[in-house]
Amino acid sequence: MTRPTRILVTGAGGQVGVDLLDTLRGVTPPGGDLTFQPDEKPVGDDEFEVLGLTRHDLDITHRDQTMHAVRSVRPDVIIHLAAYTQVDRAEVQREECYAVNASATETLSLAAHDVDAHLIALSTDYVFDGMKGAPYIEDDETDPLNVYGASKRAGELLCAHDDTIVRTSWVMGVRGKNVLHVISDRASSGETVRFVNDQTGTATFASDLARALVSMARQRPSGIWHIANAGTTTWFDIAAYAGSLLGRGDEFATPIATSDLSPAPLARRPTRSDLSTEKWVDAGFTQLPDWRDGVARFLSDRVRTS
């Protein structure tokens, strides 16, 4: 009888982390789709032995502590979700951002190889400048516009060649702090919203990403992979669609330009950073569901869990 695959998860308290812990234990998280099995293999009983670490459990910016923790656990796979994600604040907290997104990622890569484990590290669409005019593939040149994107790209470059880097974008989970909760609250309270329609990207729902990460933990491919829900969208499109599901009319969401935002955001965002998931599909995995399906599941489970 083979032993369970031992998985260490950093950032276990984040919106992807909590969904991933559920998924690795065979539980469908809020907002999840029980039928979505990208590798056509449900999570088995006792398939995984999971240790989830939050930032309160381990300061990943402390190299010695991190190396010791990994050596003590001796995981088969490390799924590195912990990140500095405050995009605008990063512009004035550059050192703190790089310490988490770059230096700590290097430490975890070194620690993984020290115990013969496989590292899966989460990255972002913000490594791109948005000037391509078409969905980005994994081999496209990177040129981050902001400190956050630059720090995540630095983290990618500090990984070993056989590590797995998963780029994703616009992540939303039922148990996380994100824009879709704000949209839902305002729709329910009779308010209106204004969202930009000149930033195009791909939305990713935490429950679907978590299930995809399970597939990556099983197969452990090297290199860079793009994973996001199907379909290109804007924040205005997401707000308008959510409003329609919640019974609001066309007056609920108003499209605006990024230049209309007040106060203006500190960090520049790419105007088009949608991710192509063709590599993922070509490798035999099932495409993540359409973003509209993700919004519907999110809103349905949000109501039930609120």
Query: Helicity level, as a percent range?
Result: 25-40%
Strand content: 15-25%
How many H/I helical runs?
9
Mean pLDDT: 96
Task: Provide the structure class.
Answer: alpha/beta
Overview in brief:
This protein has 306 residues and is α/β, with parallel strands linked by helices.
Notes on the structure:
This protein is of the alpha/beta class and 306 residues long. It has one domain: 3-Layer(aba) Sandwich (Rossmann fold). The chain contains 9 helices and 12 strands. The strands form 4 sheets. A 6-stranded parallel β-sheet has the order 2-1-3-4-5-10, sandwiched between helices. A two-stranded parallel ribbon has the order 6-9. The chain has a two-stranded parallel sheet with strand order 7-12. Helix 1 (15-24) links the parallel strand 1 (5-10) and strand 2. The mean pLDDT is 96.
List the main descriptive attributes of the protein structure presented here.
alpha/beta, Rossmann fold, 16% strand, 9 helices, 12 strands, six-stranded parallel beta sheet, 35% helix
